[in-house]
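Good morning N.,

You mentioned wanting to compare the apo and holo forms, so I went ahead and generated the holo version with cytidine-5'-monophosphate. This is what I fed in:
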Amino acid sequence: MNTLLPACALSGKRLHLGVCGSVAAYKAVDVMRALQLAGVHVGVCLTEAAQRFISPLTFASLDAAPVYTRFFDDTENGVFAHLDPGSCAHALLVAPAAASTLARLACGDADTLLAAQALAFAGPLLIAPAMNPRMWAHPATRRNVEILRMRGASFIGPAAGRAACGDDGEGKLAPIEDIVFAAAAALLPQDLAGVNIVLTLGPTREQWDAVRFWSNPSTGRMGAALACAAALRGATVNAIAGPGVPALPAPVRRIDVVSARDMFAAARDVWPQAHVGIFAAAVADFSPLPFGGGKFKKADATELRINFAPNPDILAELGKCARPDQKILGFAAETQNLEINARNKLRAKNMRLIAANLLGASDSGFASDRNTLFVADCLGREEHWPAMSKADAAWRLLDWLSAL
Ligand code: C5P
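and this is what came out, ligand included:
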């Protein structure tokens, strides 16, 4: 998840993190670290119960600032500790949120520092509950959740499973990636809300015999960064993923495919409803004609000749039937003549925008977390981008595409 967060958009944002008493309190550290690595400033308030599970020093040592622990006699953080997050943080996340804090937030009871800070906070409120399943299911908690939802709070989880006490049911802290994603989204503009995006990513795998296939080293990282950036901005994303593509954020609808033909069929299904098509997959242009006899045995031949048949060009086919309101962003990986090849593909495949990289360059391409791109659009604007994280490149490409 970390490498998917766009630091170019998140750095300088402020999150206030409330931590309640729970065995899951230590997980708040991982949430904080993931956001800090993307440049988010995190301030923390630990309830008294939280301090029984984890030390304020843990957060302070990891650059949380300020770290609030007490309502009164906290000279370090001044006399307005209960008001400060409300005036400087862009979002308030309570993770883990205990039943008692949910009750305080629901009825506006400001008798703990965290509850007072929440009462004085007018921005987005995110809550990741963690408690015993019976406490979560209790009508009092249900009512508190209902009240907070009606007021606009967003809940992340809880997840189902076996609680620390041994009880089974809903009440576990949501997965850390889900909490990090929701917190990042709350800090970012939702300018792609209502936009439907179809995205292809990763390699395709063209089977030849029972054990052998034709493929390429694409990892799907650029596509994953695009899926994440688009979803963080509120888009609905249908990600059609080839084999080996890493985990995508939970709000992304993932359709796993293997071959180029499967990928084409899946993309064609969702394309009519899409406003944007992003084609980041490294699709095999040809498939070997299947051997057809189980496993090919090397003892049966002295040489091997395989015939290949062409695959559909997914982008070109969908580009041909694109409506004027459908925008296409395509990619190209080249070994030479980067600009000329990119310009030709932009035109030939009816793209609005193309991002091309040179294969073999350091800080670029397959399996790297960074990319060095040449970007060109249908209006003739062109830019060479220096090496940057794929997450940042994805963010900037979406900015550019939105403006076209
Ligand atoms: O292979 P080529 O360099 O032409 O790929 C350029 C663009 O076309 C990429 O965005 C790639 O995802 C897309 N493409 C495709 N289907 C293919 C080949 C390429 O969608 N069979």
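Residues 200, 260, 279-281, 283, 285, 311, 313-315, 330-332, 345 surround cytidine-5'-monophosphate (CB under 6 Å).

Happy to go through it together on a call whenever suits you.

Best,
F.
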